Amino acid sequence: MIETHNLRKTFKSRRGPVDAVAGVDLDVKKGEIFGFLGPNGAGKTTTLRMLSTLLPPTSGEATVAGFDLRREPAKVRYVIGYVSQEGSSAPEIPGRTELVIQGRLYGMTKERAIARAAELIESLELADCADRPTKTYSGGQKRRLDIGIGLMHLPQLLFLDEPTTGLDPQSRARMWDEVRRLRDTGTTVFLTTHYLEEADALSDRIAIIDHGKIVALGTPDALKRQVAGDVVVVGTDQASDRVLELLRDQPFVREATTAGDVVRLYVDRGETAMPQIIRVLDSAGIPLASLSLNRPSLDDVFLRQTGRSLREAA
Amino acid sequence: MKMLKDTWLMFQRYLLVFLRNPAWVAIGVIQPLLYLVLFAPLLKSLVQVPGFPAGGAYNVFVPGLLIQLGLFGASGVGFGLIAELRAGVIERFRVTPVSRFALLLGRALRDILTLVVQSLILLLLAIPFGLKPTVVGVIVMLGLVALIGLGMSSLAYAAALALKSEDSYAPLIFTLSLPLLLLSGVLLPLDLAPGWLQDIAKANPLSYAVNAARDLFNGKGFDQAVFEGLAIMAALAVVGVLIGARRFTRAIA
Ligand SMILES: Nc1ncnc2c1ncn2[C@@H]1O[C@H](COP(=O)(O)OP(=O)(O)O)[C@@H](O)[C@H]1O
Ligand SMILES: [Mg+2]
Asked: Terminus of chain B with fewer CB atoms < 10 Å: N or C?
């Protein structure tokens, strides 16, 4: 759906050139939710604006939905939707009117645009506010309207720039459901976020971007496994040395450490390691006080690639 | 064809935005109305001064006032655009296949309509003071105001897109529009000015519009000044639209 090669954007600013996007290679597949995770200023919005024809790249190649970004921007525009970080509606105008106008700009007939707007108002649960000026909307309603505007023309690919920034937890959960529903109806979704949990929970695949460069790319699980696999924490009853000895050389254990009554085992896959750990300890007759599976977070991934924590960077 | 359709759609949208705040029509009229009531009477005693154009104080002053209305009305339109830029509305439109000319023309047409309505109100209000309009004069006058509106608002939009913030846009239009106004002979006819001032004013396109507007109301009819004024304002409009549309096409980085 999207393919880029060495995509770059350098802004000229008063304090010299800024490499906002410094050579990005991406491959977004049809029908997936692709998460673009990175701290503020990483280059997410700039990448999105290039891919949605708003900003000409300084250099590099990109095809979007099968069209060359540089040579066929007009064709790209018909098949993509873009929801900017800032929003998209005028405060004075009712949401329904904005939706209808949006459809008409893509060449829909008036009747078709009105019908499609009604459909979206229904599915995005905007019926209560659709006919009021958008300045009266709650944050969640406004964001859902933005998405509706981006979806009016049934795009194959939807770009969402920080769709949940500034939303309360409830509206955020609702937005996640909405995005998943979109994917399930066949729309490819490319979303940016600086929330670890959001990228993790929502994306089929993630690219982590920092200082304009992709530092990691893959499924959330694969990325986290890259770091250290899973961490299994075994609680023992004053037998940590024996436990360590027993488990250290098991083929499924990469690394093991002990601290007090606790043994930490770094394994590739915690789900399969845990039953094996139980079996080993059981047959040695060692009582197990507790057993827990901890997964490395995307923050561990970011930390390893950049030396900084995303929570602090963002 | 697509451009015309898109322009019409955009015009409807911006008209709607405007109609949600109809008070702006009145606010635009208040300032020229104050000039009409509080300033124009001063001119009555100047009518006898050698060099003061023929036709009476109001037939000289009101046409210029309409040009001023066009200049000030159009130069303020960038504020709305900056607000829309901030709200993400402009990016939203630029992602659609909408014609880039339509992005400019749709809103400029709305501005023109506003100016024409305001001009009509002002003309009506000026009649009791002693303005003697002719039907043809009014129609051509409105055409002149429309051309100024198109040219000036296009340039104002280009400036707003380039500057992106009220903080730099506001000083720019205030510094530019005042000399344009003073050098156009709106307040007092430039026939009263010393030679060097008249020479500078010749470089100001608006002074031709003011001359044209006066001749439309002083009974001279379609003389050369009227054609000159119309031609120069038409040229201004073409240049303005080209510059404005180019700005809408270019990335708003
Ligand atoms: N128009 C611009 N001119 C100059 N620098 C810019 C411009 N837009 C973005 N930048 C810079 O490019 C970098 C990336 O910005 P952006 O893509 O907005 O990051 P993100 O969306 O990940 O927060 C930042 O350092 C930002 O300051
Ligand atoms: Mg951003």
From this structure: N
Contact A200, A310 (CB under 8 A): no
Q: What is the pLDDT of residue A304?
A: 65
Q: What's the distance, Cα to Cα, between the start and end of chain A in Å?
A: 29
Contact with chain A for residue B93, Cβ under 8 A:
yes
A262 and A242 in a common domain: yes
Range of the domain at A172: 2-224
Sheet containing strand A213-218, edge to edge, reads A80-83, A157-161, A188-193, A33-37, A205-210, A213-218
Indicate if A261 and A218 belong to the same structural domain: no
- Regarding pTM above 0.80, the answer is yes
Say if residues B232 and B243 touch (Cβ distance below 8 Å). no
Q: Point out the domain boundary residue: A175, A193, A224.
A: A224
Q: Left if phi > 0, otherwise alpha if psi is -120 to 50, otherwise beta: which for A65?
A: left
ipTM of the modeled complex: 0.83
pLDDT averaged over every residue in chain B: 88
Sole residue written with tokens 């050579």: A23
Quote the ligand 1 centre to A74 CA distance (angstroms). Answer: 25
User: Which residues in chain A are contacts of B253 at CB distance < 8 A?
Assistant: 11, 55
* A301 falls within a domain: no
* pLDDT-based confidence at residue B29 (cuts at 50, 70, 90): confident
Residue A313 lies in a domain: no
What is the residue whose two structure tokens read 């590739």? A268
Chain-chain contact of B251 with A54 (C-beta, under 8 angstroms): yes
The total number of structural domains that make up chain A: 2
What's the pLDDT tens digit per position in B109-147? 999 999 999 999 889 988 888 888 888 889 999 999 999
Mutation test residue for ligand 1: of A11, A47, A306, the one with most atoms within 8 Å of CB: A11
Residue A19's identity, in one-letter code, is D
Of all protein residues, the one whose alpha carbon is nearest to atom 18 of ligand 1 is A45
- B204-253 residue pLDDT tens: 888 999 988 888 888 777 788 888 999 999 999 999 999 999 998 875 54
Nearest to A226 by CA among A250, A254, A185: A254
How many CB atoms neighbour CB A300 within 10 A? 19
